[in-house]
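Researcher: Go.
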Amino acid sequence: MRPAPISATLILVVALLAGPGLLVLGLIGLLARSRRRSRWVRTTGAVTDYSHTWAGGTDSVSSPGVEFRTADGQMVRGRQQFAVDVGWYPTGDVQVWYDPRDPQRFSSSRGWWDGVPVLLVIVGTVFTTFELIVYVAFG
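Model: Structure:
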């Protein structure tokens, strides 16, 4: 028995929503990062090590260990909340933004999340532009 064919209309709707959807998600991510960084305190810290956690199969997630001093001199050591294993583990100085009410909540300029909103905006813009060109060309 053959599976039911996917409707051409469904494919069209998903394709038309993909570009603007990715674009909006990227813009929301950029806005959230900007708002967080405007409220959090910026300082310089250091990536000291990486913790590799098994994620199933042969995959692992590498989480950078970061240490920095708060404005009042408190030394904070912790792990970046979001991480991805890209097979590249640089150590050394890094920009850190931390929540002054809870310095254990921080992000660094080496976090993978920094690049994701930008990538979503680029891909969303390309998809949306392509969709508009197709729409104008074929009505």
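Model: Strands lie at 41-54, 60-69, 75-79, 92-99, 102-108.
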